[in-house]
């Protein structure tokens, strides 16, 4: 899988999970979307980190998502961790 494919896969998964948690269509969740502005609550963010860990077999501290302002920034962090792993 190329880096581009990996990023697309992580982005699709993260968008789907955010969509499920904030009750917005995934199509409305863009890489530049503000995580807080989307209405993602703390508990949802922590649960979502666990879902990303399970899906991609990557270790994330539950607070990792709070280090990022946008969906794309979080996805880039996950992809970087996967590449380093």
If you compute it from the alpha carbons, what radius of gyration comes out, rounded to the nearest whole angstrom? 12 Å
Overall pLDDT, averaged? 92
By helix and strand content, what is the structural category? Answer: mainly alpha
Which percent range fits the helix content? 55-70%
What pattern of helices and strands is seen along the backbone?
HHH
Query: Could you give the count of β-strands?
Result: 0
For the record, give the distance between the C-alpha atoms at the N and C termini, rounded to a whole number. Answer: 14 Å
Q: How many discrete structural domains?
A: 1
Notes on the structure:
- The chain is mainly alpha-helical and 85 residues long.
- It has three helices and no strands.
- The longest helix is centred in the N-terminal third of the chain and has 20 residues, at 3-22.
- The mean pLDDT is 92.
């Amino acid at each position: 899988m190329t880096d581009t494919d990996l990023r697309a896969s992580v982005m699709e998964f993260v968008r789907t999970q955010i969509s499920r948690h904030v009750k917005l269509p995934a199509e409305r969740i863009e890489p530049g979307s503000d995580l807080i502005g989307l209405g993602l609550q703390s508990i949802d963010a922590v649960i979502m980190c666990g879902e990303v860990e399970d899906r991609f077999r990557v270790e994330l501290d539950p607070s990792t998502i709070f280090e990022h302002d946008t969906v794309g920034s979080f996805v880039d962090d996950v992809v970087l961790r996967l590449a380093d792993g």
